[in-house]
Amino acid sequence: MSTAFSPAVVRPAAVRTLADPDTPFAVVDAHRARRNIARLRARADRLGVGLRPHVKTAKSLDAAALLHDGTPGPVTVSTLAEAEAFADAGYRDLTYAVGIEPRKLPRVTALVRRGVTLRVLLDSTEQAKFVAAAARESGLALPALIEIDCDGHRGGLKPDAPGLTGIGRVLHDAGCLDGVLTHAGESYSAFTAEERRAAARNERDAAVTAARRLRAAGLPVRTVSVGSTPTAHAADDLTGVTELRAGNYVFFDLVMAGLGVCAPADIALSVVVTVIGHRPEYGWIVTDGGWMALSRDRGTAAQPQDQGYGLVTDLSGTLIPGLVMTAASQEHGTLTARDGAALPELPIGTRLRVLPNHACATAAQHHGYHVVDSGRGTSASPAIEAYWPRVSGW
Question: What predicted TM-score, i.e. pTM, was given to this entire model?
Fold first, then answer.
């Protein structure tokens, strides 16, 4: 997405409701977001582990302020730009949960020099040597987590990998070993509650086993970090784990609803679009919100119920039964009625909200969020209470 223009600035005196800004634009329901945050916080408290939310979904300081009651707390980031933006805002306890490479280490070192605890992630001896060398050269401890592969997803070492303790030794000798981290990526295909619980147990066991091996080799392990949105909401025993990570849960989306992790009524992010045409011969309603507004993500296509590019609500957030965004070009969205039902009467100019498949991908299409609060009651066109910009470098 082009960033050649400045983020829009919303003037509350001129923009009062969802009927006012030009479409398409992103909306966050703060009431739903607060409820989602409280739900996972309560679970982490019951399980006796710390919660390190992932801010990659919202990438917003305003949204993050809801995570720890307005006080900067521990968070996970997915880019160094996020790390720098959150450090500038007073966050001092960060985990950069993407594998490190050498040219990024000067930015890491600069943040650590500022007094920020910024953990880096790695899964190879080569990376460990780069981190150790940077630590020695800078005279700083650069805390590192060894990534553990718990389910064959992306990077990481298997818990029983022969090279695990060697990597730990390289880091420890440079004062850099902090612990282990894993992410149950395959939990996004866990369609039953028992499958999600099993994924959570496997995620925990992989991290705890790796930590136990490192300790048995005489290496200290401070952090044992696990988490994904599905497993975070399914875990029932996190013995041996120190912290839980998740990010999507703040907004949720249709993929999470399709897995049974949430309901559509929990989804806090939507995109407001306007009806701009009708093609009755094809059974289409055409809107001004295509994949540039919703993203190309079709994450529900592999689920039992394919939700196209998103489910459709009225401006108040009430689902319109059977109406689905089934096709998208760059700036056009096509709405159709599911299973041959009659299309609703939606004149040109009607504003609608679309619930996204993947909140992270949809949020990335926008510079910020117009904020409403359904906890204050519903109306045909909810009042806009704030504008939350996303951080730079997104």
Answer: 0.94
